[in-house]
Amino acid sequence: MKTTRLCSGIILGIMILVVGPGAVRAQPSGDPCEQGNLLYGKGDYDGAILLYSQAIGLDPNNSIAYNNRGLSYHNKDEYDLAIQDCTEALRLNPNYAYAYYNRGNIYRDKGEYDLAIQDYNQALRLDSNCAIAYHNRGAVYHTKGDNDLALQDYNQALRLDSNYATAYNSRGVVYHTKGENDLALQDYNQALRLDSNYAYAYNNRGNIYRHKGEYDLAIQDYNQALRLNPNSADAYNNRGDAYRDKGEYDLAIQDYAEALRLNPNYADAYANRGSAYDDKGEYDPAIQDYNQALRLNPNDAYNYNNRGFSYDNKGEHDLAIQDYTQALRLDSNYATAYCNRGNTYMDKREYDLAIQDYNQTLRLIPNSAEAYFSRGNAYKDKGEHDLAIQDYTQALKLDSNYATAYNNRGVVYHTKGDNDLALQDYNQALRLDSNYAYAYNSRGRAYDAKGQYDLAIKDCSQAFKLDSSLVTPLYYSAKACEHAGRTADALAGYEHFVAVAPAADSELVAKAEARIQALKPE
To answer: Who contacts 62 (Cβ-Cβ below 8 Å, separation ≥6)?
Structure first.
């Protein structure tokens, strides 16, 4: 049994709108600074820079011209020049709150978060009612992972401006990060009440609906986000996630492809499309997409894990182990990679190595029913039946609806000759899943061992009826017929089994052929 991937590179798609209050200040009519402001407003930053430079030439002490030229450089991503100009504006006017605020934004975009916070602090010291400075400082705290401080700042921004849609959206993002999805949903709803054309809020609310399992509502919100912003790679990626969660893999793949058309360097979209291909059983294109994701982000443990999962599904166990091992080099606390590598060792019948990996999984996630179940399987296959029963029992304490654990514990009881206990477990497995073909087959074998041949034949027949790809029930049904003295039925059953059994069942085929020879009339 393979473990479900914990993560396949899913992104939140958070986008925070940041604009400066009074960022470009008006000047007297005819002044080159005001003319620069007009060009700035039109997005002509080069023209604005020329006019602000003229204003500075006319008045070298014009702090507003320095501030506004700095904003123009910022919009051109020329951060060092922007910082120089804002710094000069502050030298000329040490109480210029907006220059502190604007320089904070530049430091933020450069990734110099501590300097950004210092400047927002200064801006707020000079203007304690500047809601957007609280907001943007909150955004930096969130980026740094200081979500409680971020919440404090967003709360203060909303106290100052209760109609601040962006602050509601941003606070919703923090609540989502903290797992408080109902509060996040409330904030996104409020943001959209205030601004019904707020594409980012639709996108983010869609993320909440998706995490709550309300995929159709999520898709509706992503549709709205894309109606408002047709070039949003994030919204396509996120809608793809919702389609994938619904099992609509082709629609998901279409959306991931569109996200990649809009942003060819979108590593998460490659990773997510790889997961969709993997879910479809198309392992080669999945591996190709994980390769692309790893080319863009070579230190992403999740994508090594996911590529390993695809290799494992292809039967390329050594390549899978290499990838799981690399994932663990990058993140030594990656429980899913340990569990998946353990599963691959199981495929290779290297049970001791598998048990070591399941031990690591349980060290990291002590309440993982799946890890106990998997380790139980390893002990079962090693013949350490009592340890297997202990692990299956622990898995069932953690998840009382784990039908497969009941079935497998029953198998061990049957192997030990405790068929009454085995039957109890098979019955419980079938109460939980009435279409569980393996449990019918297992229960049929237990009935056969107890001499209840009619019940055995009935269960084995039901197993094959539920899953015709599971052919071993044909063998065990024939065996029960033989034990019941129904020689003709037994012979026909063994012949049917031999005719349809795959090569993997060669040992059982040999037994069936031997019984055919023994039962055939002289």
So the answer is: 33, 55, 56, 92
51-75: b (≥16 Cβ within 10 Å) or e: bbeebbeeeeebbbbbbbbbbbbbe
User: CB under 8 Å to 181, separation ≥6 — which residues?
Assistant: 175, 208, 211, 212
Distance of alpha carbon 321 from alpha carbon 345, whole angstroms: 8
Does residue 58 register a pLDDT over 80? yes
For residues 429 and 439, the answer to whether their CB atoms sit within 8 Å is yes
CA–CA distance, 175 with 172 (Å, rounded to integer): 5
Q: How confident is the model at residue 459 (pLDDT cuts 50, 70, 90)?
A: very high
- CA atoms 462, 463, 469, 474: torsion sign: negative
| Average pLDDT over every residue of 331-340 | 97
Angle between helices 165-177 and 147-160 (to 10 degrees): 160
Q: Which residues contact 485 (CB under 8 A, 6 or more apart)?
A: none
Predicted confidence at residue 247, as pLDDT, reads 97
3-state SS of 67-136? HHHHHHHHHCCCHHHHHHHHHHHHHHCCCCHHHHHHHHHHHHHHCCHHHHHHHHHHHHHHCCCCHHHHHH
pLDDT band at 500 (very low <50, low <70, confident <90, very high): very high
With tokens 């899978």, the residue in question is: 320
b/e map of 311-329 (b: 16 or more CB within 10 Å)?
Answer: bbeeebbebbbbbbebbbe
The domain made up of 231-298 is a member of CATH 1.25.40.10:
yes
Q: What is the mean pLDDT of residues 454-465?
A: 97
> Using one digit for the tens of pLDDT, what is the confidence trace for 234-250?
999 999 999 999 999 99
On whether the CB atoms of residues 221 and 234 are closer than 8 A, the answer is: no
The closest of 310, 302, 362 to 326, measured between CA atoms, is 302
Q: What does the domain layout of the chain look like in residue ranges?
A: 231-298
Phi-psi region of 461 (alpha: psi -120 to 50; beta: other; left: phi over 0): alpha
Tally the residues of the chain: 522
Q: For residue 447, give the amino acid letter.
A: Y
Q: What is the DSSP letter of 331?
A: -
* % the chain with pLDDT above 70: 94
For residue 393, the surrounding DSSP H or E stretch is helix 385-398
Is the pLDDT confidence value at 26 over 60?
no
Does residue 29 carry a pLDDT above 80?
Answer: no
Cβ neighbours for 96, distance < 8 A, ≥ 6 positions apart: 63, 67, 89, 90, 126
Q: For residue 392, count other CB atoms closer than 10 A to its CB.
A: 30
In sequence order, the 6+-apart residues with CB closer than 8 A to the CB of 391 are 372, 373, 375, 376, 379
**CA atoms of 255 and 248, how far apart (whole Å):** 11
Structure tokens at 135: 């907001």
> Chain-centre distance of CA 141, in angstroms?
24
